[in-house]
Amino acid sequence: SRLITFLMTFFPLKTGGKDRRSGLILTIPLCLEQTSMDELSVTLDYLLSIPSEKCKARGFTVIVDGRKSQWNVVKTVVLMLQNVVPAEVSLVCVVKPDEFWDKKVTHFCFWKEKDRLGFEVILVSANKLTRYIEPCQLTEDFGGTLTYDHMDWLNKRLVFEKFTKESTSLLDELALINNGSDKGTQQEKERSIDLNFLPSVDPETVLQTGHELLSELQQRRFNGSDGGVSWSPMDDELLAQPQVMKLLDSLREQYTRYQEVCRQRSKRTQLEEIQQKVMQVVNWLEGPGSEQLRTQWGIGDSIRASQALQQKHEEIESQHSEWFAVYVELNQQIAALLNAGDEEDLVELKALQQQLSDVCYRQASQLEFRQNLLQAALEFHSVAQDLSQQLDGLLGMLCVDVAPADGASIQQTLKLLEEKLKSVDLGLQGLREKGQSLLDQISNQASWAYGKDVTIENKENVDHIQGVMEDMQLRKQRCEDMVDVRRLKMLQMVQLFKCEEDAAQAVEWLSELLDALLKTHIRLGDDAQETKVLLEKHRKFVDVAQSTYDYGRQLLQATVVLCQSLRCTSRSSGDTLPRLNRVWKQFTVTSEERVHRLETAVAFHSSAEKILQECPEQPEAFSETEQFDEIEAVGKSLLDRLTVPVVYPDGSEQYFGSPSDMASAAEHIREKMKLVSLKKQQLRQPEAATPES
Fold first, then answer.
1. Per-residue b or e along 107-132, where b marks 16 or more CB atoms closer than 10 Å to that residue's CB
2. 150-153 contacts, C-beta under 8 A, 24 or more apart
3. Under a CB-based contact definition with an 8 Å cutoff, are residues 16 and 220 in contact?
4. Residues 635-662, mean pLDDT to the nearest whole number
5. Under 8 Å between Cβ of 120 and 91
6. What does the alpha-carbon distance between residue 468 and residue 439 come to, in Å, rounded to a whole number?
7. What is the mean pLDDT of residues 531-539?
8. Is the pLDDT reported for residue 47 higher than 80?
9. All domains of the chain, ordered by start, with CATH?
């Protein structure tokens, strides 16, 4: 503890700095308080024991910081170095205070005593210490740049010393335990572990401490200091790494042997307990357990009977499960001993394991066979009951007449009927599969009979199973015949309602086409070419409407035929046909008006464009004014038609587009008519100028 206390205020042997000969630097800071030379000597001895011999051969540079001390203390320390490390010290730098000691006090000349001391001593101020040592190898106290944390070094050194002490002591204890186990007699090996087998410290803790210390030492070789300055590992840390690694290797080796000794003792103790438990399991399974299975053979003739037999079997399985749990535990213990056992124990352990496994597997197979048989019987009776209920439901549905409400309800009823029939088919198929599986298991039941004759009981079970399957087959066949008749009628109903719905849809489509014709087909084109394109698109549009109308007529005709077949009157055919004809007549009138307007627009644009494109140097081409008059007449006629509504046969009227749309189309026609009029005036001017000339 005194050494640790002194180290807390004493710079260690290596701060990472080196002199110009690559020797290590030792710093001895002195203070105003009295310095114990004995403690200083012990500390120096300890610090000098850290470096390797190779480092010591390069010598040391000792810095004695006397700035806060007295001259006589400094001189005593320097003389003490002669007795402690005379051979290793090559240079001693005494850092003097700013106010130098009295010359009378310092009359002792160190340089004259060099031969007697064995090393050179110089007096130097702190700011001139860099003449002898590079600044990068000095700490900040002496104006250098070397980063050094004394408390960090001390803490890690304490950890290293503690680990070294504990690991060395633990190695001795483990070696004693392991060697004693190797030399012990057979009787000693059979004894349980006593207190001598427990080390004084936890090996895992010591190993963890060593790994953490080694990791810290290795990281310091690559990581920089906190200040960001590159840090060189100190030689004592480099020396500590192989020591820690060697101790860790030895600890791991001895600890592994110690663990093996403990495992061997524990295994031999378990062996006798395992033998006793194995015989208990075998005796019960071959005795009371087997007798319980011999008394259970029936499968029941209903769900309730099968469930009662299952409940009884679960009670038997519950008793067996307790012994099977013991078997699992014993098997794991035996397997663990086999993996870590000696050759002398392998034969006995394998024999116990084989005997235990044979008995348990045989009994488990018998339990599983009985459980599967009862489960198959319960599933068979459950499927038979479900199928019987499905057949009753299907028959009840077939006995009720179907009132035609609408196509969706008829379709839903037909779908439900088909689903029920399909469910019955699947149910009967599942019943056959379950019955055949149960029959196969019953035929194999004799092999587990322990010599008991079960032929009579098996025959009753077989007759019951076959009788249930035959009865269900007959009931299902009767229902199928009734379903075929009902399906045909319902399909005709579905087709009837579908035709009526599609005919009504055709009327809606035709109405939508008429609405689109009135609201969106309003453009007349900006020129003859565009107007012709619009005329062609309109004809295709009319073809679509014609197809829709024809489709609706065909559907209504099919509706009449289906009504005659079903001997019923259609709900909507009397209303749908007049609606279809009315919308078609309105569409026809509107389409004809649209065609007339487009054809008039084509004639107007063609004539106007021809006049406007003629060359003005050929006035003879326009000698007659009839062409201009004709264009003007066609334009006015087209403008008049834009303001006239479409009149339907019932007297109702409809306009194309909105008033703004018609105004826009009319404005374009007026502009082109103005261009034609302007062209006409241009052609008349040369004619007027000729008589004047």
1. eeebeebeeebebebebbebeebbee
2. 150/11, 150/12, 150/15, 151/8, 153/12, 153/234
3. no
4. 82
5. yes
6. 13
7. 89
8. no
9. 1-148 (3.40.525.10), 521-684 (1.20.58)
